[in-house]
Amino acid sequence: xxxxxxxxxxxxxxxxxxxxxxxxxxxxxxxxxxxxxxxxxxxxxxxxxxxxxxxxxxxxxxxxxxxxxxxxxxxxxxxxxxxxxxxxxxxxxxxxxxxxxxxxxxxxxxxxxxxxxxxxxxxxxxxxxxxxxxxxxxxxxxxxxxxxxxxxxxxxxxxxxxxxxxxxxxxxxxxxxxxxxxxxxxxxxxxxxxxxxxxxxxxxxxxxxxxxxxxxxxxxxxxxxxxxxxxxxxxxxxxxxxxxxxxxxxxxxxxxxxxxxxxxxxxxxxxxxxxxxxxxxxxxxxxxxxxxxxxxxxxxxxxxxxx
Length: 307
Fold this sequence. Notes:
With 307 residues, the chain is mostly helical. It is 72% helix and 0% strand. It folds into two domains: 38-178, Orthogonal Bundle (Tetracycline Repressor, domain 2); 181-307, Four Helix Bundle (Hemerythrin (Met), subunit A). It starts with 13 loop residues before the first helix and ends with a helix. GO terms for molecular function: prenyltransferase activity. The chain crosses the membrane at residues 105-122, 129-147, 159-176, 183-201, 239-264, 285-306. InterPro entries: UbiA_prenyltransferase, UbiA_sf, UBIAD1.
């Protein structure tokens, strides 16, 4: 009688869940520094909001991994033919977590995020309706980004990346000050552009996998030249937003000059991606450009505060 061979179950660890939640990619969380530099200190509310956004984003990326594993796109983008992408960053593809483990983790993080954001609203000195509604909408959209309604599979991926970043600045600022600020709106858009600008380079690299599963990113829908023009337009538009804000008085006159180092990095990123043809190095430089921009936005708020 032949003994039945049972396939070994994945041996999960804390590290696998950290990889599933992409805890090493902290760029969305930097928005809280912009809020803290632009508004009076409210440490309890800010801390609750920050912890809540970590949980919500972790839930969103975990759901994204589940969907990418189910439809096979992650198997293509992180498979043996792509040596630039580390398979261990995708625990489901690597086989270190099961789908049910990933789903339990994602739903648990979502519940924690909802509780923490509710606590942030309750402890805030102000509760403008627009801030609360924005939080509710973005919370729901984050969970439906690649799961459930699959918003990113319906043409909303690029817009969502910007709106999420904007919300993580605008909503807590509204809760702390009770006001809407044009200058903070400009900063929120620039902050949201950061994740978008390394997202579109990722999409450029992942175009074959996205096309195979019908995920309509701009890179998947257009030609290589059309995608390059789209990313070029985004890069120029980012600079023009700051320049227009300075010219119109929404931002201080020196604001566009202050953020020029980030603009230079963005130009370097585009050159790397589409002149040199090294998309993944360009994507990596996008993180540096975003973090530089955040530092400059914080500096701008400090300069405004001291007059």
